[in-house]
Write a structure and sequence with these properties.
Blueprint lengths: L4 E6 L20 E5 L7 H13 L5 E7 L1 H12 L4 E7 L17 H13 L1 H11 L3 H5 L2 H9 L6 H13 L13 E6 L7 H10 L3 E6 L6 H4 L1 H24 L1
Parallel strand pairs: 1-2, 1-3, 3-4, 4-5, 5-6
Helix pairs in contact: 1-2, 3-4, 3-7
């Protein structure tokens, strides 16, 4: 048994933590904590929830899996305290979510402000449009968007929480801290990710001291949903390496 290791699974913007329920099934020997940010009314609450989840770990070590917004929360946590982190698996991540004078590949910040205004009027339409962007053309043709929409259902998180998530994405900036994250970081990005484009992951991989970037062709922003078996194999293959190294260190 490997109950001395806890998996922390951080979800993305607007998506409940239950998105991980099927994904954790192939890892029965680990403890798991599933976290979303759909009850966080402001940016500080998002950070605090991530920090609280981290502090609640009683295991001797942890593996963090973060997707989209959740991957950015994971990076901030690692920059503050990485003593227990055995490895990080970041999906659909980026060095910076919004574009700026030094990074031209992110989202236009004006689009986030527009989304915040629309959330007050038509939250269902905002989420529907966002969900549509998460899948590649071939994934949509294969019916993954329809499956996702059925899974998500009609329940909508509180508008304040959705706006807080957009604010978090807009302000995320830790360029001067990436070099401090001295743990294995495995990045997975879809080549057709329109939410967090590939270039953002490539730059992030360059800035992290111990990063490995994997790119899947014809895949969008939700690779664990459209290719669950491959996603499990991706984690397991790297998990074997880091856990073996951890055991070797303990025997010295």
């Amino acid at each position: 048994m490997t109950e001395s290791i806890t998996f922390l699974w951080f979800s993305g913007w607007s998506v409940p933590a239950a998105v991980w329920q099927e994904i954790i099934q192939p890892f029965p020997d680990f403890r798991h904590a599933l976290i979303d940010f759909n009850d966080c009314p402001d940016v500080e609450a998002i950070r605090e929830k991530g920090k609280q989840a981290w502090e609640n770990i009683t295991s001797s070590s942890a593996i963090i899996v973060g997707w989209s917004l959740g991957s950015l929360v994971a990076l901030e946590l690692a920059a503050m305290d990485q003593k227990k982190i055995q490895a990080m698996f970041l999906v659909g991540s980026t060095v910076q979510f919004v574009r700026s004078s030094v990074f031209s590949h992110g989202c236009d910040p004006r689009q986030l402000e527009w989304m915040k205004r629309q959330l007050v009027k038509k939250p269902e339409q905002v989420l529907s449009a966002f969900d549509g962007q998460m899948f590649s053309v071939s994934e949509r043709e294969a019916g993954f968007l329809e499956n996702w929409s059925r899974w998500r259902g009609s329940e909508i998180p509180a508008v304040d929480a959705l706006k807080a998530g957009l604010d978090y994405l807009k302000q995320f900036q830790m360029d001067h801290l990436f070099h401090d994250i001295d743990v294995p970081v495995f990045l997975l990005t879809g080549a057709e990710d329109d939410i967090c484009p590939l270039k953002g992951a490539q730059v992030l991989a360059e800035k992290l001291p111990r990063a490995e970037l994997t790119v899947w062709e014809q895949v969008g922003h939700v690779p664990f949903w459209t290719r669950p078996s491959a996603f499990t194999d991706w984690i397991k293959g790297r998990l074997d390496v880091v856990t073996i190294k951890e055991k070797d260190c303990q025997t010295i």
